[in-house]
Automatic annotation (TrEMBL), chains A, B:
Residues 9-60 form the HTH lysR-type domain. Belongs to the LysR transcriptional regulatory family. PANTHER family: HTH-TYPE TRANSCRIPTIONAL REGULATOR, HTH-TYPE TRANSCRIPTIONAL REGULATOR CITR. It comes from the Bacteria. This is LysR family transcriptional regulator. Keywords: DNA-binding, Transcription, Transcription regulation. Signal peptide: none annotated. GO terms for molecular function: DNA-binding transcription factor activity; transcription cis-regulatory region binding.
Length: 294, 294
DNA sequence: ATTGTTCATAGACGTGGTCTATAGCTCCTG
DNA sequence: CAGGAGCTATAGACCACGTCTATGAACAAT
């Protein structure tokens, strides 16, 4: 009774077509093989499954009972195989990405659009959060990949550097007097500074930089959205510390200008983060491939 | 993608136990075999199905989707195998018998009782009808076996002679004067004769016998039930032509007595009839075996 | 009769699934 | 930190078993 499940495939086709010869054709094997397989099944059960007629075969009572189960089973397997093929060529499946809202909006979005156009069958899930939150999501298996600011030092994670960003201080028309000037850090602090919320990686980086010059950076305003940072600077409420690439539009149309400093601000890097030693889902793999390609 | 379904069995156990080693134990094969099988599946799909951890394996997104189908499929197969085993040792299944009411009542019933006691899981279906009807039932596959009067001459059918019966004429107290007398056929016909309905095999046989002596047998009363034949004879409405074995009780307690004739009435044979060249269901096979045994 | 179906049987062949042996890895423990 | 005990992956050998070809037997149709 310890059957080879392969026999059920043969049984299924024999019952379905009502002919061992037809079953053989469907399975691309010869009729004696089918005959032999059916015999094996019958012997293993100690039951006769088919009536053999000169014009084919017909299920016996017992065979019909077996078929009622095996038919369902085979249909499930076929469906599963189709599903797998669909997952393979990304006709279905899902892609779950973690990252910050600003990175989604200013960096990932165009890739997502391309990706969605190429693979409309793949459902997209975006989970926003801070860098440590995104790392948690990843480790919990709630996302396939995270897009965050480097550096990330975690042996469990594999990080691909994908983009270099340059943070800078920007101001609006209200501080037009500063346009073209080169400020020292001390001088800068005479103006109200607007920073992103405390637990962001960019905020930590700039705070450390000032610290290294012995200066304590204390913001006038603290917000949780990059859009607000930009908006507040434009309205003249202070000088915002933002990623230059994310305000390129405003810099171009002159609604914001960059404050020149007498020290170099360190560039920041964005990385695509995945679990090390864990295979990527094909949807995630294709997405990363697409990001590096463009 | 033309997969060996055997691989799904391995996949199922690997996913279920979360360990290739455990799956190997469940399947009574070695761990490298399991490893190899999973690899084959993954290669065939072009997808990774498991995360390999140092403490076992876990399904990937894609693997989990596959599992949702395969699990159902495997459960169906297991259920089917259990069902087959149950059918084999007659814990389930059905037995469909065709025959006349009188044969059921007087001949088959005791065997049915034994059978039901031995295999209470087998559902019994009794289909009553005349001999030609029973033959039709059999050929249409509505019954597994028929119990009818012989002779049956049909190349499609296989008939096992199972019982010899002796028909005879019986009367009740009203005709007590005939007790011990030996009657000629002519003399018999001076009394009202009660026969079974025209289309029965027993009726045809006795009509032919009279015909062979140049006598036309015309019954006074014609009924469709053996019980009625007996009852009418007991009430004195005439002389009934019945199967002696079916009135043994009445002959013993004296409510009926057999009319002696000066010619021998031919014995009739009961046969168990099945389709030739068609395998018996195990339930039917066991029943026939039981009938011959006792 | 002849031809064309069907399934069953016999025997040969060769692939592929299973095995053993071993390595690499991580985690735990003394 | 070394050693042991898990786990899975890999390599290579072997032989069972599933497939094949060839043929037979039974039946249906022409």
């Amino acid at each position: 009774m310890n059957n080879n499940y392969e026999l059920y495939k043969v049984f299924y086709w024999a019952a379905k077509t009502g002919s061992l010869t037809q079953a053989a054709k469907a399975l691309y094997i010869t009729q004696p093989s089918v005959s032999h397989a059916i015999k094996q099944l019958e012997d293993s059960f100690g039951l006769t499954l088919f009536y053999r007629n000169p014009k084919g075969v017909a299920l016996t009572q017992e065979g019909a009972i077996l078929y009622s189960y095996i038919e369902q089973s085979q249909i499930l397997i076929s469906t599963a195989e189709e599903k797998m093929a669909a997952l393979k060529n990304l006709d279905s499946g899902e892609l779950r990405i973690g990252g910050s809202d600003s990175l989604f909006k200013h960096y990932i979005l165009p890739y997502l659009e391309d990706y969605h156009r190429l693979y409309p069958g793949v459902r997209l899930h975006l989970n926003h959060g801070t860098t440590p939150e995104v790392i948690s999501f990843l480790k919990e298996g709630r996302i396939d990949l995270g897009v965050v600011r480097m550096p990330i030092v975690d042996p469990q994670l594999e990080v691909r550097e994908s983009l270099q960003l340059q943070d800078c201080f920007v101001a609006g028309a209200h501080y037009a007097e500063l346009r073209g000037m080169v400020l020292s850090l001390d001088k800068l602090l005479e103006y109200p500074v607007i920073l992103f919320s405390r637990n962001s990686r960019a905020r930590m980086a700039i705070t450390e930089l000032f610290q290294s010059y012995g200066i304590t950076l204390k913001p006038e305003i603290e917000v949780g959205s990059v859009d607000l940072l930009i908006e507040l600077a434009r309205k003249g409420l202070g000088i915002s510390y933002v990623t230059r690439e994310f305000v390129s539009k405003e810099l171009e149309n002159g609604s914001l200008f960059e404050i020149q400093l007498d020290v170099a601000l360190p560039p920041s890097h964005v990385g695509i983060m995945t679990m090390r030693n864990m295979p990527l889902s094909s949807s995630a793999g294709k997405f990363i491939e697409l990001m590096r390609l463009i």
